[in-house]
Amino acid sequence: MQVRVKIRRFNPEQDAQAHWREYTLTAEPSDRVLDLLHQVKWYRDGTLTFRRSCAHGICGSDAMTINGRNRLACKALVKDLKQPITIEPMRGFPVVKDMVVDMTGFWEKYRSVKPYLISAEPLPAKERLQSPCERERYDDTTKCILCGACTTSCPSFWANAQYLGPAAIVQAHRFLFDSRDRGAKERLDVLNASSGVWRCRTIFNCTDACPKGIRVTQAIGQVKQWLAKVRLSRRKSVSKTVLSDS
Ligand code: SF4
Ligand code: F3S
Ligand code: FES
Prior knowledge:
Elements: E1 2-9, E2 19-26, H1 33-44, E3 63-66, E4 69-72, E5 85-88, E6 95-97, E7 100-101, H2 104-112, H3 132-136, H4 155-159, H5 166-176, H6 184-192, H7 205-209, H8 216-245
Parallel strand pairs: 1-5
Antiparallel strand pairs: 1-2, 3-4, 3-5, 6-7
Helix pairs in contact: 2-5, 5-8
The structure holds iron/sulfur cluster, FE3-S4 cluster and FE2/S2 (inorganic) cluster.
Protein backbone atom coordinates (compact mmCIF):
# COMPACT_ATOMS: atom_id res chain seq x y z
CA MET A 1 0.00 0.00 0.00
CA GLN A 2 0.97 3.65 -0.45
CA VAL A 3 1.37 5.56 2.80
CA ARG A 4 1.52 9.33 3.15
CA VAL A 5 3.71 10.47 6.01
CA LYS A 6 4.28 14.01 7.27
CA ILE A 7 7.37 14.41 9.42
CA ARG A 8 8.20 17.53 11.40
CA ARG A 9 11.80 18.30 10.55
CA PHE A 10 14.25 20.55 12.33
CA ASN A 11 17.96 20.80 11.78
CA PRO A 12 19.45 23.51 14.01
CA GLU A 13 22.35 23.94 11.59
CA GLN A 14 20.04 24.88 8.69
CA ASP A 15 16.57 25.76 9.91
CA ALA A 16 15.34 28.86 11.70
CA GLN A 17 12.25 26.89 12.68
CA ALA A 18 10.69 23.46 12.31
CA HIS A 19 8.75 22.61 9.16
CA TRP A 20 6.77 19.67 7.75
CA ARG A 21 8.13 17.40 5.02
CA GLU A 22 5.82 14.97 3.28
CA TYR A 23 6.83 11.55 1.92
CA THR A 24 4.85 8.90 0.05
CA LEU A 25 6.15 5.45 0.92
CA THR A 26 5.34 1.86 -0.01
CA ALA A 27 4.60 -0.20 3.09
CA GLU A 28 2.69 -3.19 4.44
CA PRO A 29 -0.33 -2.55 6.69
CA SER A 30 1.51 -4.46 9.43
CA ASP A 31 4.58 -2.22 9.18
CA ARG A 32 5.37 -0.01 12.12
CA VAL A 33 5.97 3.72 12.10
CA LEU A 34 9.57 2.86 12.96
CA ASP A 35 9.79 0.99 9.63
CA LEU A 36 8.54 4.11 7.82
CA LEU A 37 11.17 6.24 9.56
CA HIS A 38 13.86 3.72 8.60
CA GLN A 39 12.66 3.78 5.00
CA VAL A 40 12.98 7.57 4.86
CA LYS A 41 16.36 7.54 6.59
CA TRP A 42 17.88 4.69 4.58
CA TYR A 43 16.48 5.48 1.12
CA ARG A 44 15.32 9.12 0.98
CA ASP A 45 17.16 11.36 3.42
CA GLY A 46 19.95 10.11 5.65
CA THR A 47 19.84 13.25 7.77
CA LEU A 48 16.51 12.24 9.37
CA THR A 49 17.31 11.84 13.06
CA PHE A 50 15.48 9.80 15.69
CA ARG A 51 16.30 7.54 18.62
CA ARG A 52 15.55 3.83 18.62
CA SER A 53 17.18 0.72 19.97
CA CYS A 54 15.19 -2.42 20.81
CA ALA A 55 12.38 -2.02 18.23
CA HIS A 56 10.16 -4.09 20.52
CA GLY A 57 8.66 -1.68 23.05
CA ILE A 58 11.25 -2.34 25.72
CA CYS A 59 13.90 0.39 25.70
CA GLY A 60 11.56 3.41 25.55
CA SER A 61 13.82 5.40 23.25
CA ASP A 62 11.45 6.01 20.31
CA ALA A 63 8.54 7.77 21.98
CA MET A 64 7.21 10.49 19.69
CA THR A 65 3.93 12.16 18.79
CA ILE A 66 2.18 10.17 16.07
CA ASN A 67 -1.12 11.48 14.74
CA GLY A 68 -1.26 13.87 17.67
CA ARG A 69 -0.76 11.23 20.36
CA ASN A 70 2.39 10.11 22.15
CA ARG A 71 3.32 6.54 21.19
CA LEU A 72 6.33 4.34 20.59
CA ALA A 73 7.18 4.30 16.87
CA CYS A 74 8.02 0.60 17.15
CA LYS A 75 4.55 -0.25 18.47
CA ALA A 76 2.40 1.95 16.22
CA LEU A 77 1.15 0.01 13.18
CA VAL A 78 0.40 1.63 9.83
CA LYS A 79 -3.00 -0.14 9.57
CA ASP A 80 -4.16 1.51 12.81
CA LEU A 81 -3.34 5.08 11.75
CA LYS A 82 -5.23 7.59 9.62
CA GLN A 83 -3.31 9.13 6.73
CA PRO A 84 -1.39 11.26 6.34
CA ILE A 85 0.45 9.92 9.36
CA THR A 86 1.97 12.85 11.22
CA ILE A 87 5.19 12.31 13.18
CA GLU A 88 6.53 14.96 15.56
CA PRO A 89 8.88 15.13 18.54
CA MET A 90 7.30 14.90 21.99
CA ARG A 91 5.95 18.23 23.19
CA GLY A 92 7.49 20.12 26.10
CA PHE A 93 11.15 19.12 25.73
CA PRO A 94 13.60 21.24 23.69
CA VAL A 95 14.10 19.76 20.22
CA VAL A 96 17.72 18.87 19.44
CA LYS A 97 17.11 17.65 15.87
CA ASP A 98 14.03 16.17 14.13
CA MET A 99 12.56 13.64 16.65
CA VAL A 100 15.45 13.88 19.11
CA VAL A 101 14.57 15.91 22.20
CA ASP A 102 16.74 17.03 25.09
CA MET A 103 15.75 14.87 28.06
CA THR A 104 18.27 16.31 30.53
CA GLY A 105 15.54 17.77 32.76
CA PHE A 106 13.58 14.52 32.58
CA TRP A 107 16.54 12.52 33.89
CA GLU A 108 17.27 15.10 36.61
CA LYS A 109 13.72 14.72 37.90
CA TYR A 110 14.01 10.95 37.67
CA ARG A 111 17.17 11.03 39.81
CA SER A 112 15.60 13.48 42.28
CA VAL A 113 13.10 10.86 43.51
CA LYS A 114 15.94 8.43 44.30
CA PRO A 115 14.70 5.58 42.12
CA TYR A 116 16.47 2.77 43.94
CA LEU A 117 16.00 0.67 47.04
CA ILE A 118 17.02 2.53 50.22
CA SER A 119 17.51 0.52 53.37
CA ALA A 120 20.03 0.69 56.18
CA GLU A 121 18.82 -2.60 57.65
CA PRO A 122 21.45 -5.32 57.90
CA LEU A 123 21.60 -7.57 54.88
CA PRO A 124 19.73 -10.83 55.46
CA ALA A 125 21.61 -14.10 54.99
CA LYS A 126 19.79 -14.91 51.74
CA GLU A 127 17.34 -12.29 50.47
CA ARG A 128 14.87 -9.61 51.56
CA LEU A 129 11.60 -11.52 51.66
CA GLN A 130 8.34 -10.09 50.40
CA SER A 131 4.89 -11.64 50.19
CA PRO A 132 3.03 -11.83 46.83
CA CYS A 133 0.53 -9.37 48.30
CA GLU A 134 3.28 -6.85 49.15
CA ARG A 135 4.78 -7.28 45.66
CA GLU A 136 1.41 -6.66 44.06
CA ARG A 137 1.20 -3.12 45.52
CA TYR A 138 3.79 -1.75 43.12
CA ASP A 139 3.66 -4.33 40.33
CA ASP A 140 2.11 -1.90 37.82
CA THR A 141 4.78 0.79 38.22
CA THR A 142 7.64 -1.69 37.71
CA LYS A 143 6.61 -1.81 34.04
CA CYS A 144 7.79 1.74 33.32
CA ILE A 145 10.35 1.96 30.49
CA LEU A 146 11.04 5.69 31.03
CA CYS A 147 9.95 6.68 27.55
CA GLY A 148 8.63 10.10 28.66
CA ALA A 149 5.34 9.76 26.76
CA CYS A 150 3.34 10.47 29.93
CA THR A 151 5.22 13.57 31.08
CA THR A 152 5.18 15.15 27.61
CA SER A 153 1.44 14.64 27.23
CA CYS A 154 0.63 16.28 30.58
CA PRO A 155 -0.88 19.80 30.37
CA SER A 156 0.39 20.58 33.89
CA PHE A 157 3.92 19.89 32.63
CA TRP A 158 3.36 21.98 29.50
CA ALA A 159 2.20 24.85 31.74
CA ASN A 160 5.12 24.52 34.15
CA ALA A 161 8.25 22.62 33.15
CA GLN A 162 9.35 22.59 36.80
CA TYR A 163 6.61 20.03 37.54
CA LEU A 164 8.16 16.71 38.50
CA GLY A 165 5.91 14.99 35.99
CA PRO A 166 4.16 11.61 35.96
CA ALA A 167 7.18 9.53 34.92
CA ALA A 168 9.24 10.56 37.96
CA ILE A 169 6.23 10.06 40.25
CA VAL A 170 5.69 6.56 38.81
CA GLN A 171 9.32 5.79 39.72
CA ALA A 172 8.82 7.18 43.23
CA HIS A 173 5.70 5.02 43.58
CA ARG A 174 7.61 1.91 42.59
CA PHE A 175 9.90 2.30 45.63
CA LEU A 176 7.55 4.00 48.12
CA PHE A 177 5.19 1.05 47.96
CA ASP A 178 7.94 -1.57 48.13
CA SER A 179 7.78 -3.14 51.61
CA ARG A 180 11.59 -3.56 51.64
CA ASP A 181 12.30 0.14 51.06
CA ARG A 182 12.97 2.59 53.90
CA GLY A 183 13.60 5.73 51.82
CA ALA A 184 10.19 7.38 52.14
CA LYS A 185 11.51 10.29 54.21
CA GLU A 186 14.26 10.98 51.68
CA ARG A 187 11.71 11.27 48.86
CA LEU A 188 9.18 13.25 50.84
CA ASP A 189 10.53 16.77 50.23
CA VAL A 190 10.75 16.47 46.47
CA LEU A 191 7.30 14.88 46.15
CA ASN A 192 5.67 17.38 48.50
CA ALA A 193 7.38 20.49 47.02
CA SER A 194 5.46 23.08 44.99
CA SER A 195 6.70 21.33 41.83
CA GLY A 196 5.79 17.90 43.19
CA VAL A 197 2.71 15.68 43.01
CA TRP A 198 0.22 18.40 43.92
CA ARG A 199 0.73 19.96 40.48
CA CYS A 200 -1.09 16.95 39.03
CA ARG A 201 -4.69 17.96 38.23
CA THR A 202 -5.86 14.41 37.47
CA ILE A 203 -6.13 15.08 33.74
CA PHE A 204 -5.42 11.42 32.75
CA ASN A 205 -3.47 12.25 29.53
CA CYS A 206 -0.52 10.41 31.07
CA THR A 207 -2.53 7.22 31.53
CA ASP A 208 -3.87 7.43 27.97
CA ALA A 209 -0.35 7.93 26.57
CA CYS A 210 1.48 5.20 28.47
CA PRO A 211 2.54 2.49 25.99
CA LYS A 212 2.90 -0.04 28.82
CA GLY A 213 -0.68 0.43 30.02
CA ILE A 214 0.40 1.62 33.45
CA ARG A 215 -2.40 3.23 35.47
CA VAL A 216 -0.31 6.36 35.90
CA THR A 217 -3.03 8.62 37.32
CA GLN A 218 -3.96 5.95 39.86
CA ALA A 219 -0.32 5.62 40.96
CA ILE A 220 -0.07 9.42 41.34
CA GLY A 221 -3.29 9.34 43.38
CA GLN A 222 -1.78 6.72 45.71
CA VAL A 223 1.33 8.87 46.19
CA LYS A 224 -0.92 11.87 46.99
CA GLN A 225 -2.83 9.79 49.55
CA TRP A 226 0.41 8.63 51.10
CA LEU A 227 1.64 12.25 51.37
CA ALA A 228 -1.68 13.40 52.82
CA LYS A 229 -1.37 10.73 55.55
CA VAL A 230 2.19 11.83 56.33
CA ARG A 231 1.04 15.47 56.58
CA LEU A 232 -1.83 14.50 58.87
CA SER A 233 0.34 12.44 61.20
CA ARG A 234 2.88 15.32 61.34
CA ARG A 235 0.12 17.80 62.26
CA LYS A 236 -1.15 15.44 64.97
CA SER A 237 2.30 15.05 66.49
CA VAL A 238 2.82 18.87 66.43
CA SER A 239 -0.52 19.52 68.16
CA LYS A 240 0.28 16.82 70.75
CA THR A 241 3.60 18.58 71.48
CA VAL A 242 1.83 21.98 71.76
CA LEU A 243 -0.78 20.51 74.13
CA SER A 244 1.81 18.81 76.32
CA ASP A 245 3.86 22.06 76.47
CA SER A 246 0.87 24.20 77.53
FE1 SF4 B 1 6.59 5.78 29.56
FE2 SF4 B 1 4.47 4.83 30.90
FE3 SF4 B 1 6.84 5.06 32.13
FE4 SF4 B 1 5.46 7.23 31.50
S1 SF4 B 1 4.83 5.64 32.96
S2 SF4 B 1 7.63 6.95 31.19
S3 SF4 B 1 4.52 6.65 29.57
S4 SF4 B 1 6.33 3.74 30.40
FE1 F3S C 1 -0.83 15.33 34.16
FE2 F3S C 1 -1.50 12.84 34.35
FE3 F3S C 1 -1.83 14.41 36.41
S1 F3S C 1 -1.84 14.15 32.61
S2 F3S C 1 -2.24 16.37 35.47
S3 F3S C 1 0.10 13.87 35.52
S4 F3S C 1 -3.17 12.77 35.76
FE1 FES D 1 12.83 0.45 22.00
FE2 FES D 1 10.77 1.35 20.56
S1 FES D 1 12.82 1.14 19.94
S2 FES D 1 10.82 0.94 22.68
